[in-house]
Amino acid sequence: MKKGMIIFFIVFLISAYVASSWDSIPLVKNTVSSILDPSFGVLLKWNLYIGFVVIIALTSLVLTLAQKYLSDQAALKELKKEQKILGEEMKKYKEHPEKLMELQKKQLEFLPKTFDLTMKPIMFTSIPIVLFFRWFGMYLSPAFGGWWIAYYIIGSMIFSTIFRKLFDVA
């Protein structure tokens, strides 16, 4: 197993442990609440819906900037360019299964490279994001039920797209 995969697996396990210890270890919940209640909590108490949108925008901005400054953007853009060229080539050969299969194997070679280049932002943001989501869920579930996560995902897709274009993130 590659080093990047091992690191990802370790960070994933730590994040899962932290998320699962939310209720069983009060220190985790209390610490996160003491940090987020005076800032984001005040925003949500002021106006739940506007606060929700502002928080989605802020988290999308932070994650976009983390991706921009913690990953090798030049290498990622080069990989995307190569993938686009390969995709165009695959369109040419869709009637030739053997050539198409060869190109698809080539396309799969991009996955580990992309994963390695995007690993650093994941390592630095996963645990804070898991803690933030646990707090956010605690705060928003009474108002939105389980739907808050769907609204968050839709909002973050919109804001992330805007910020990625604005900051030229690969």
Question: What do these coordinates show?
Answer:
The protein has 170 residues and is mainly alpha-helical. The chain has one domain (3-166). Helices cover 87% and strands 0% of the residues. It has helices at residues 3-20, 26-46, 48-70, 73-92, 97-108, 110-144, 148-166. Helix 2 packs across helix 6, helix 3 (48-70) crosses helix 7 and helix 4 (73-92) packs antiparallel against helix 5. The two termini are 26 Å apart.
In short:
The protein is mostly helical and 170 residues long.
SSE layout and pairing:
Elements: H1 3-20, H2 26-46, H3 48-70, H4 73-92, H5 97-108, H6 110-144, H7 148-166
Helix pairs in contact: 1-6, 2-3, 2-6, 3-6, 3-7, 4-5, 4-6
What is the C-alpha radius of gyration, as a whole number of Å?
Answer: 20 Å
What structural class do you assign from the helix and strand content? mainly alpha
Q: Which regions are unreliable across 5 or more consecutive residues at pLDDT < 50? A: none
Average of the residue pLDDT scores: 88
Order of helices and strands: HHHHHHH
Treating each run of at least 4 consecutive H or I residues as one helix, how many helices?
A: 7
Q: What amount of the residues lies in strands?
A: under 5%
The global form is: elongated
Number of domains: 1
Major beta sheet summary:
none
> What's the end-to-end separation, in Å?
26 Å
